[in-house]
């Protein structure tokens, strides 16, 4: 089955769509619009009428050609961080915008495979983001700067450290 042809033409969704559950979904939506130039689909903005507490049960933010769905975490739901990869035109600029809105740098902009730069940050809701962008230098690096013949470098070690420290930010 080719799943890409089974999507009704009228849908706003992609074949795969991420869903982020966070305390303060409205704050996360604002973060996504400011950091990634995301656009919330106001028609999809759905308060949880049953909870009657102002929380969102569903919202959608379009970032580039992708869709992230967002909802508020209920008090009895466990913390479940999202781990999301985003291709951006400028990793350093995006990282600065994220930090300016409360994110913590996990991995500074670093050379990566295939002529890409990588950076990572942890948002204020405990979600881990991978940024990929065309390499800032035009060297067109085609292999990892961290070869298997050397000690692990920061691209590797910062991820391991961040994963060990993931915790509920509330």
UniProtKB/TrEMBL annotation:
SUPFAM superfamilies xrefs: Glyoxalase/Bleomycin resistance protein/Dihydroxybiphenyl dioxygenase
Family annotation (InterPro entries): Glyas_Bleomycin-R_OHBP_Dase, Glyas_Fos-R_dOase_dom
All copies of domain Glyoxalase/fosfomycin resistance/dioxygenase, residue ranges: 20-131
Source taxon at top rank: Bacteria
Stretches that traverse the bilayer: none
One Pfam family, short name: Glyoxalase
Gene3D superfamilies (alphabetical): 3.30.720.110, 3.30.720.120
Protein name (record): Putative glyoxalase superfamily protein PhnB
Species this chain originates from: Stackebrandtia albiflava
